[in-house]
Amino acid sequence: MTTGAPLPHDSALAHCTGAARFADDIPDPPGLLHAALVLSPVARAAGFALDDTGARAVEGFVALLDAAAIPARNDISPTGKGGEPLLADGPLRHHGQPLAMVLATTRDAALRAAAAVKVAPRDPAAPCLDIEDALAREDFLMPPQVIARGDAAAAIAAAPLTARGEFRAGGQEHFYLEGQVAIAVPEEDGSLAITSSTQHPTEVQHIAARILGCDFNRITVTCRRMGGGFGGKESNASWVAAAAALGARATGRPVKLRLARKADMAATGKRHPFLFRWQAGFDASGRILALEALLAADGGHSLDLTPGVVFRALTHALNCYDVPDVRLTALALRTDTVSHTAFRGFGGPQGVLLMEDVIRAVARATGLSPEAVRERNFAGAPNDARTPYGQALEGDLIRRVWAECMADSAWESRRAEIAAFNARHPFLRRGLGSFALAFGISFGVRHLNQAGALVHVYADGSIRLNHGGTEMGQGLNIKVAQVVAESFGVPLERIRVTATSTAEVPNTAPTAASTGSDLNGWAARNAALAIRGRMAEAASALWDVPPEAIAFEQGRVRVARPGDNRAMAFGALAHHCWLERISLSATGFYRTPDIHWDAKTMRGEPFFYFSYGAATAEVLVDRLTGEHRVLRADLVQDCGRSLNPAVDRGQIEGAFVQGLGWLTCEELVWDAEGRLRTLGPSTYKIPGSRDAPPDLRIRLLADAPARADTIFRSKAVGEPPLMLATAVWNALRDATGVERLDLPATPERVLMALMQEGAASPRP
Amino acid sequence: MPGRIRFTLNGKDLALPGQTPPAITLLDWLRGPGGLPGTKEGCAEGDCGACTIVIEEPDGTRSPANACLMLLGQAAGRAIRTVEGLRAADGGAHPVARILAAHDGTQCGFCTPGIVMAAWAYTRMGGDAHEALAGNLCRCTGYRPILDALGAMEDDGAPPPLAHDPPAEIATATQRFFLPRTVAEAVALRAAHPGAWLLAGGTDLNLRVSEHREQPPLVISLQAIPRLRRLEVTAGGIEAGSAAPYARLLEACEADADFAPLAGLLRRLGSRQIRALGTLGGNLGTASPIGDALPPLIALGATVTLASPRGERAMPVEHFLTGYRSTALAVDEIITRIGIPRPPPGAFLACEKLSRRHDQDIATVGLSVLLAFADGVVREARIAHGGCGPRAARAAGAEAALLGKPFDTSAAERAAQALEAEITPQSDLRGSAAYRRAAAGNLLRRLALRAPGIFAIEAPHHPVFAA
Q1: In terms of domains, do A142 and A229 share one?
Q2: Strand A288-298 to strand A325-333: parallel, antiparallel, or no bridges (unpaired)?
Q3: pLDDT digits (tens, 9 = 90+) for A179-238
Q4: How does pLDDT run across A315-361, given as a tens digit for each residue?
Q5: pTM summary value
Q6: Considering only alpha carbons, which residue of chain A is nearest residue B133?
Q7: Average pLDDT of A296-305?
Q8: How far apart are the first and last CA of chain A?
Q9: What is the band of A758 on the pLDDT scale with cuts at 50, 70, 90?
Q10: Contact at CB, B48 and A177, closer than 8 angstroms
Q11: What is the predicted pLDDT for the residue at B464?
């Protein structure tokens, strides 16, 4: 079996020798111009004027393009609804907003010329930067979304016990190591070839065409690999590429736009910050009877992908728990900051925080452990398995990942050991936290749940595979190649995966929502099966046996009947097919079955299936400084029947550490003028190697093939494990005993929370 | 007589064309004219490590460095290796690359060339793997596979290539890059070109090129002056040339138990890449209130020596720092050496640093404490803070609170309260004033409570301290 084998990433050695080429590594095409952006120096103003005298004096300056240079629609909105200009064409709406683009013969000249452009904002105003301010102004980006079941208010009023809470979670910068970059090369007939570091080549094509006012067939978008994406190159890559396309159209020369790190961090969206307020009714057994909650997302200045992010936060707000009477309201607030966007988990990580706060409060009020409260409220028998929007969770799988994780982590014995440590140490405290997850897999937007692939078998039996997904390090190409190798019964070495291109597979979905291998794996398999079917017929004619009797295994094709030893190499059959004029090329297509959603009633089954996981974490906290460290984490993740356990393990531990960063050390700091002050790794601190748990135990749930008809019964893995890091938040609250601990729980937040709750002085 | 830029690149001697500007970054040269795009730009500020290359020192030392923070002129005379030049004897992939790939140590692959180079240096230099990786960010893997791979790698034993002397000056039509050999030459150049950049390691100054795309017309590099790169450990302490890289200072402190707490702090100063280039002289000249090395220098009573055409003068570091990023350095002066006295016998030294991330982060608060004892009581106290005011400075109130008494929790409490009262921290992106004040006091309290734990910065277990 090729599927299920722990094979390394297909580019692993090329990465390590430096041979793997990223967009900026491609040799410059002749006549290349470099672009640099002029960014808004203020967060809010009625308008602006540009003075490019200084820029024109820079040697190598070629052109300055502003909104007036856009031939068609100045609109980069993923929805196409407008309100999101590529280059500002009126009011300034956030610090770092692109206003104009300078083209020059060298990158240095472009950057210097862009810096020399003087921007005069007209009527600058104090920006609105905070969710609460925006709430007070009722400045919404979209109508509220509400999911309700029963009568939550009445049930809370009738409940024996009640609690309420409020907390905040910050945003997160993607910090893909490779910044945004695109190269647009004019071809004949006004066509453009764009190389883009993008998760969504089709959207790059659409938006470039929208900006230029041309048919989609004039734009070809290619992406061999990204140096990380994490959602940050889902919609944001499109405008970077569209800007390069604009430059190429305006000058007739190739144009490269590569954002310097600071420009990238100033001009591209982040994970949405959230504010949560809730009240709950429960009983002394810890059963949560009713919950009313507000999830308020800071969407930044424009819509971007916020509706989807809010939808996922809302549908994941109860996570894997059942609450009979519930009213969940999600708001998207407009602030004068960069437009927040997709980030691994897409609102799910924020949504699942809600029940963690509720569970801790219930535990506190009832004297139960948070773990007991979890168990009491898991969805599925004896509780209801249905989410408030009507889709059923698999209670048995929730309980299985939970039980296995608790057993792995030796919870009870460590509890005792930790209590003993805490009793004797003057200022260090250890704490334990847990978490369980049910994460829905599928795009919330129905039409994105489709994929295509293009497979060629050449006359020597070698296979060229192209699919609509993009490779950003997640190992999609190796997984899809494994699927195709399996389908043809050939060794993996016979498969060559080529760069994603809108010219090979059109009308694709972004590689996002953890669906890359689910969608593209099936599409590639369908293409492979179509070719294999034709090859089987050819073999059947050759050997005069029914096509069903032809087997493809281990690089050979044979008659699978007792006593019949006829066989040939796969390549020999391919050659035979060629001679017999049989097509060895096919496209494959896939659309996710059985998903539906009614936006009016907010009911439906939007997810093809759920991915389950559980985690425990142990932390050490210095009560005098707030410094902390994760000492150990135990994770159990449901990957169905994993296509590639090595890749999945990499996704799990990488996502966990990224989630840990979001929850503990990655802090976005805006100043009062709306300037993001954390504009590079010197100020924005993602986890380093020492910050990963030194003892990280990961287990893929065994013997758990997906129940839905997924590709080889595997399950998605890109996003869910990021949320397992939530266990660290719980462990920090366990170690400190503080009631409210906003996120990210930096050393400062931990110490200040301790001080506010009067606990920061050392034991006498 | 101006010369061309010559250096050894991937084992081969290379002389660049005459008009190659010396004050562009090595990274831009590698990726552009050098035709070697394996080395990546991730941040252009020396924090992500994607551009890590290795300087192969003549003594076999391998110094990883950030190509984004090195000017091409700084490569002159040195031997540089990039990921493209790391090959096995048969020309295939080097074992370091093979082992990292085999451990699933790459996902997106963009940080990977930098990690490969840091790892190749680590196979020779050893030490703590986290410390060796502190200058390399990976956003995909969570680091575990990389750490596993590091554990499986070995030194390939490759000898350093030959290095040669750089020219005294590299000049183009628009840039002059001076590499004086003596302090006298440097001082004369400084007098002749008061507007020139005075370049020590460049880990701060070169951001103006790397990020802000400046093109300095005149640069005086101190890296080729043997006297300024000298570092001596004597019975009296450490005498460091102002251009001796931190890596050398750390090496000296690690080998000398009296300076072990300083070694602990230096291991958190930047990264190996930063310490390969960064210098004490640079840290003093920049005079940032959060310069990591400043509080310990003040606490230890270090002196700084300055040279000018008028001769030399020396002064305590605490007097040299006059305000926010300002110093007593006159326009015609250069910093030549720093004298760090050895702590008196039986003294207690602690060099604390608080930052959002343990490694490779700028301090939110720095606090260094030197206590000398007589008859069980504190005879002399020198407490210096950073990040708690416009400049790194001593805390006279806290010092006074400790004098004449044993160093115990109640003395620490009094001193902490005095410290909290006398510092004037500001709120900025690294922390609020309230947090800095509370944390500074608590760092002092913690010294009296310190028990072995992960946050201990290798404090010596002095009898008074341990009591």
Answers
A1: no
A2: parallel
A3: 999 999 999 989 999 999 999 999 999 999 999 999 999 999 999 999 999 999 999 999
A4: 999 999 999 999 999 999 999 999 999 999 999 999 999 999 999 99
A5: 0.97
A6: A689
A7: 97
A8: 63
A9: confident
A10: yes
A11: 29
Check whether the bond before A744 is cis (ω within 30° of 0). Answer: yes
pLDDT score for B163:
76
Give the bridge partners for A191, in sequence order: none
Give the chain B residue whose CA is nearest to the CA of A645: B104
- Interchain proximity B357–A687, CB inside 8 Å: yes
CATH number at residue A475: 3.30.365.10
Note whether residue A597 is domain-resident. no
Residue A760 confidence (pLDDT) above 60: no
Examine residue A254 and state whether it is found in any structural domain, yes or no: yes
Contacts of B109 in chain A (CB under 8 A): 9, 11-12, 14-16, 20, 225, 227, 473
Segment (H or E) for A439: strand A428-441
Of A17, A176, A764, the CB nearest to B139: A176
CA distance B43 to chain A (A): 5
Q: What SS3 state is found at A728?
A: helix
Q: Which residues of A403-439 are buried (b: 16+ CB within 10 A; e: fewer)?
A: ebbbebbebeeeeeebeeeeeebbbbbbbbbbbbbbb
Judge: A426–B130 Cβ closer than 8 Å, yes or no.
no
Q: Output the domain CATH number for residue B446.
A: 3.30.390.50
* Residue B98 to residue A625, Cβ atoms within 8 A: no
A719 a catalytic residue: yes
pLDDT, one tens digit per residue, over B268-321 is 999 999 999 999 999 999 888 888 999 999 999 999 999 999 999 999 999 999
Chain A nearest CA to B226, separation (Å): 31
Q: What is the pairing mode between strands B79-81 and B6-9?
A: parallel
Q: Which of A178, A504, A667, A719 is catalytic?
A: A719
CB contacts, 8 Å: B434 with chain A: 752
User: Which of these, B438, B283, B254, B268, lies nearest to B351 by C-alpha position?
Assistant: B268
Nearest chain A CA: its distance from B234 CA (Å): 34
pLDDT at residue A184 in the model:
98
Give how far A565 is from chain B: nearest CA, Å: 38
Question: Is the same domain home to A263 and A289?
Answer: no
The parent domain of residue B443 ranges over: 348-466
ipTM over 0.90: yes
Place of tokens 């020597």: A460
Answer yes or no: do B289 and B335 share one domain. yes
In B304-363, the residues whose Cβ lies within 8 Å of chain A are 354, 356-362
User: Where does a domain end: A267, A295, A318?
Assistant: A267
- Is the minimum CB–CB distance between A649 and chain B shorter than 8 Å? yes
Residue of A nearest to B50 (CA): A177
Using the Cβ of A690 and the Cβ atoms of chain B, whether some distance falls under 8 Å is answered with: yes
**Alpha carbons A497 and A482: distance in angstroms, whole number:** 11
pLDDT-derived band at A79 (thresholds 50, 70, 90) equals confident
Q: How far is CA A724 from the centre of its chain?
A: 15
The owner of tokens 């064409």 is A89
**Contact indicator for A452, A587 with CB cutoff of 8 Å:** yes
Residue A335 structural domain:
135-170+274-391
